[in-house]
Design goal:
The complex is a heterodimer. Chain A is of the alpha+beta class. Helix content of chain A is about 55%, strand content about 20%. Chain A starts with a helix and ends with a strand. Helices cover about 40% and strands about 20% of the residues of chain B. The model of chain B has no long low-confidence stretch (mean pLDDT about 90). At the A-B interface, helix 4, helix 5, helix 6 and helix 7 of A face helix 1, helix 4 and helix 8 of B.
């Protein structure tokens, strides 16, 4: 629920509660006032009843005559009438019309009283009693004041409820607007940060409220992330420059030495060559490791600059298998390829080529002579699967996860120093970059590396064509 | 041949210039981007070798500015930025070739040669002859001394690349890039196996070998040692 709607609902609720409260107070007050008037009238009736018992109707009439001016003083109304409702005594000129006449009942009617020369209607509440001789007695009180009070009270209730609801709604809306604005502002800042600007921070306004607390916590977190990011970037920049530059100079120097050695004495020439050639090879390996490491880092950092083109994995794999086939056969390995004519996916061709190359190189390195390497590309709806299986030593189930981490060599590979320990790790990073998962399995015997790339759902699946290279 | 080397690393520039001079080139050195751009626009060089990261103007800006001013001198970019994307960016910016540091001097020489002689052979040609070896580019057929030689299509591509650059050293990296479209170095020397197969097809049974290995650099197709 949006905060503006929440404010509306809350103000409606507050209005209901306030109205209920005020109406209750109104009703209680009204009944109290009514009871008070009724009590006064009853007391009056009781007094007159005493008069009747002590001195008959004559005494009652005498008492009423004494109180003839009571209207002006207390708003009290008295009337004693005979059986035919003809007035005998009291301050009413006639028995009121249009009232239901029954002994011991409360009635309400209006009387016209002269005020400054003109008649004004006053509401009156009265009690009617039948005296023992058949005469009627009416005792009442002016209730115009009570009605005025209740009317004012009602009006106040209405206004109070309305104003309370309005102010609650206004306050709530203002608060909701402020909350929404702040949340939106935070969301925008986060968006900018996600787009790569890690220097952005959430705004605090010094109010020391929950928002400031949140902003401070998030900012502290961003600070930390930026710090780590900088450390990482610096580390990679250092690798790139601090390592590449000296390597480059070393290489240039060695080559110069090689040239110079070539010009001098013959034995010196051979000695120098024997020394320098392996040094150059070492340098090459160092250079490759470094390049691969940077490629992994780039792939892991989900390279924003990585071009994503349509790559035909079937064609790419076929080309690479063709590239490696002579070398494999030279090493006494049989390599087979099973692939559809096309298997198109979205990706980076060079990185995918590197993935496949690394898997083929691994097979070349670790599968003993006489072994077999089976490369397979399968296309199905929504995915393209690549698998490279061999019947070599394989990787123990417990070591498979570790084998995908950089610089980890497992099993027989640990003894084989020619590997950089980065091949599978780079392959896994490239796979992740293509939203694919690289898994190592048991080819019983041997290793099977499988990688399933998601593709957009597409056309008919061509038949697989098996071919042996 | 007159080369301009734009490189801010003085020591690397000195070594490179020395090596290039020993290989018979005349070399001028510019130590930063501004001087490099100035010299490149002024002088008439046959080739410019520019480092990518330079003070004032980087290598790519220099190429872009030269091209905008109608200068079409070939430019070879050297860079410590070695990812495939950096390469592609470098070539798109108008660089004619891109070499990642550190590189073997032989690699640099081979690429300079290739760039300098690029214009010599017309692209539209149907036949290439190297000594008694003949390539029929239309029929994709090879023959030597009139005798047909069986090659696979990849071997033909390899041979064509070498034949178009007959007499020049071609490196393994150049072959991987041109024939297999791979812009990274595999760990094993896969190319060597292909070359030795090609060699046995082309040279076996003939007195004079044509396909030679150049130690520490690559291969060359030429008549005689």
């Amino acid at each position: 629920m949006s905060s503006a709607r929440l404010a509306l609902v809350y103000s409606a609720l507050v209005m209901l509660i306030t109205a209920a409260l005020l109406i209750t107070v109104y009703l209680v007050t009204r009944s109290a006032l009514e009871r008070e008037i009724a009590a006064v009238i009853r007391a009056e009736v009781d007094d007159l009843g005493d008069d009747l018992r002590l001195g008959g109707v004559g005494r009652v009439a005498a008492t009423l005559r004494l109180r003839a001016d009571s209207w002006g003083r207390t708003g009290a109304v008295f009337l004693l009438a005979d059986q035919a409702f003809r007035p005998v005594a009291g301050n009413l000129s006639a028995w009121p019309r249009d009232i239901e006449v029954a002994p011991s009942t409360m009635v309400e009617f209006e009387i016209a009283a002269l005020e400054r020369g003109s008649p004004v209607l006053h509401p009156v509440e009265a009690r009617i009693e039948r005296l023992s001789n058949g005469y009627w007695l009416l005792v009442g009180a002016d209730i115009s004041e009570r009605q005025a009070v209740l009317r004012r009270f009602g009006l106040a209730t209405l206004w109070g409820t309305g104003l309370t609801a309005l102010s609650v709604w206004l306050l709530g809306a203002a608060y909701a607007r402020r909350t929404a604005r702040r949340v939106r502002e935070y969301a925008n800042t986060c968006q900018t940060i996600m787009q790569g600007d890690l220097t952005q921070r959430l705004r605090t306004d010094g109010a020391r409220d929950e928002f400031d607390a949140l902003a401070l916590a998030v900012n502290a977190m961003l600070e930390r992330i930026e710090e780590q990011n900088t450390t990482l970037r610096t580390a990679f920049d250092s690798i790139a420059h601090d390592l590449r530059t000296p390597l480059y100079r070393l290489r240039v120097r060695l080559e110069e030495a090689q040239l110079r050695a070539g010009a001098s004495h013959e034995t010196l020439q051979t000695e120098a060559q024997e020394l320098i050639a392996p040094a150059l090879e070492d340098l090459d390996r160092l250079q490759r490791t470094l390049t691969t490491l940077l490629a992994i880092a780039r792939a892991e950092a989900q390279g924003v600059t990585t071009h994503h083109d349509q790559v035909d994995l079937a064609e790419l794999v076929a080309g690479l298998v063709e590239l490696y086939a002579p070398g494999m056969r030279g090493a006494g390995l049989e390599i087979t390829l099973e692939t559809p004519e096309h298997a198109v996916l979205t990706g980076n061709r060079q990185l995918l080529a590197q993935l496949v190359t690394n898997l083929l190189e691994n097979a070349l390195k670790y599968v003993p002579t006489g072994g077999r390497v089976r490369v397979r590309v399968e296309e199905s709806v929504g995915s393209v699967a690549l698998s490279v299986a061999d019947n070599g030593p394989g990787i123990a189930a417990a070591d498979r996860e570790a084998a995908l981490r950089p610089f980890v060599r497992v099993g027989d590979a640990a003894a084989n120093a020619s590997g950089s320990g980065l091949g599978l790790s780079l392959a896994a990073a490239v796979a992740r970059l293509h939203r694919a998962q690289l898994t190592l399995g048991d080819a019983a015997p041997g290793l099977i590396v499988r990688c399933v790339f998601p593709t957009a759902a597409r056309r008919d699946v061509p038949n697989g064509i098996a071919q042996v290279c | 041949m007159h080369l301009l080397l734009i490189e801010d690393d003085a020591e690397a520039a000195r070594f490179l210039a020395k090596g290039l001079r020993e290989s018979g080139y005349v070399v001028d050195i510019a130590a930063d981007g501004r001087e490099g751009l100035f010299r490149a626009s002024e002088g008439s060089y046959d080739l410019i070798i520019a480092d990518r990261q330079l003070p004032h103007f980087d290598g790519l800006s220099i190429v872009a500015m030269l091209r905008r001013n109608g200068k079409h001198t070939p430019v070879l970019i050297l860079s410590a930025l070695g990812s495939v994307d950096d390469r592609i960016e470098g070539l798109r910016a108008g660089g004619d070739d891109y070499l990642t540091k550190p590189f073997a001097f032989g690699e640099l020489l081979a690429r300079i040669e290739a760039l300098l002689r690029r214009g010599n052979l017309p692209e539209v040609t149907t036949r290439i002859r190297v000594a008694d070896l003949e390539l029929d580019l239309l029929g994709r057929k090879v023959s030597r001394a009139g005798r047909p030689i069986d090659v696979t299509s990849k071997e033909f591509q390899l041979l064509e690349f070498l034949a178009r650059r007959a007499g020049q050293v071609v490196t393994r990296t150049m072959l991987l890039e041109a024939v297999w479209d791979l812009h990274f170095d595999p760990q094993t020397n896969v190319i060597d196996v292909h070359i030795s197969r090609l060699r046995s097809a082309v040279d076996k049974g003939f007195d004079r070998p044509l396909l030679h290995t150049v130690r520490g650099a690559g291969y060359v197709l030429r008549d005689g040692g």
